[in-house]
Amino acid sequence: MKRKKHTSKCIESAIVFAESKGWSIISGGKSSHCWGRMLCPFGARNKECRCGEFCLVSIWGTPKNHEQHARMLIKAVEKCQWRGQND
Amino acid sequence: MTKYYEFSLRFDVSNCGKNQDQIDDSLFEAGCDDALVRHGRHGEINITFERQSSTALDAMQDAQKQVLLALPQAKLLEVKPDFVGPTDIARVYSITRQRVQALVNTKLSHVHPFTSVGNTQIFRLANVIDALDSQGRHHADEAIREAATAAMQLNRQNL
What we know:
The complex is a heterodimer of chains A (about 90) and B (about 160).
Chain A: H1 9-20, E1 24-27, E2 34-39, E3 56-60, H2 66-79
Antiparallel strand pairs in A: 1-2, 2-3
Helix pairs in contact in A: 1-2
Chain B: E1 3-12, H1 20-29, E2 36-39, E3 44-53, H2 56-70, E4 75-80, E5 83-84, H3 86-93, H4 97-105, E6 115-117, E7 120-124, H5 125-135, H6 142-158
Antiparallel strand pairs in B: 1-3, 1-4, 2-3, 5-7, 6-7
Helix pairs in contact in B: 1-2, 3-4, 5-6
């Protein structure tokens, strides 16, 4: 099933960027403010993943500042040390 | 004058009796709607902030208060950026890890590592920045220097 789009354009493009790097997007469950969560593709598979402890990142539905939130999401993907090895 | 400070707080939330959804909602409602919340495997969360404030210490203490308001049972484990290895130092200065290793053997030889894990030396970022600043060749962003100093101060109080 195709996932629903985030209503904020800049956050949606950050999510698309994360997906292009292999991250998967899961639903925010019963949370009212968390739109969804992005899951690192390497954390579960690779025990050596340094940041594997924190590879479930919450995406707000209505953050205080959409641009800043989008930027922080992109940074989280770019900081992953396994990125680049499978690109 | 205010600056933007980037820092992270790591908390043990295993005693809060809340699931991930409830944790996210509590944090959002307590004012962390500008933060990036990352969930760990073992009841830990890591919250990254990019906040405007007059000092880094104020920004970190305000953020910590908000988190504790949302999750009173949460236990602060670490404030970042403080403990760093060569890879992290390389990222702060936008240089290669090899260059950092060379600096550790020359300009940074008088800076004692906090500890070593395996073959990796762990430093306090504030000490590294001060040492390199006094040598006059490498300048880190002033906001990063302040954040590293404030993080070291808070970690000394908490750890």
